[in-house]
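Repro:
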Amino acid sequence: MTSDEEDAPSPEEMLRVIQEQRVATVRWLRGDPLLLYAPWGVAWLLGYTALFLHYGLDGHPYAPISLSQALGVLMGAQIVAGAVSAFEIARMSGGVRGHQSARGTMYGYGWLAGMLLMIIIGVRLSMILPPGEAALLWGGGTLMVVAVMYMAGGAIWLNWEMFFIGAWVAAVDAVGVLMGVGWFLLLTAVLLGGGFIAIGLWLRRRR
């Protein structure tokens, strides 16, 4: 037996290497869950907590935070979260071609269309609603888009985790809207803000 034959990997070793490469590829394509979920969790925790402190449960502020300041915290935090997530999504998509790339592009346009439509509806209807109801329209409508898009993404990529996260967002959104603006903001901050941070940490640990 030659030295080259002795150094050749066994079939078991080759299968192990192939399996390790497959697992690494799946992890690469799915991205880092901590960067995909935790930034949004932090943004919602900070932003909706600020809005909750402004509105309170009974319509009386719990802290001297103006509406514009609270919205500034929410929007600024969401911009940072969007930038972090976009960077991770771009990294994930860098080596993807064909049908997967087309699906991702159409899915991204779906997010854009949904949010633009929500902005149009919110601008049009919030002018004729009381401040509290207008806040519910904006918050509840935005989370509705988030919930539907997450569930749609789960269906497109056969990702049950993503689908159930969307269902969880829909459930919290529905309960919060029914309970009123104060409870909506509190539930969103705690259950979705804190929840997305926990989801990111849990999924990262499972990788």
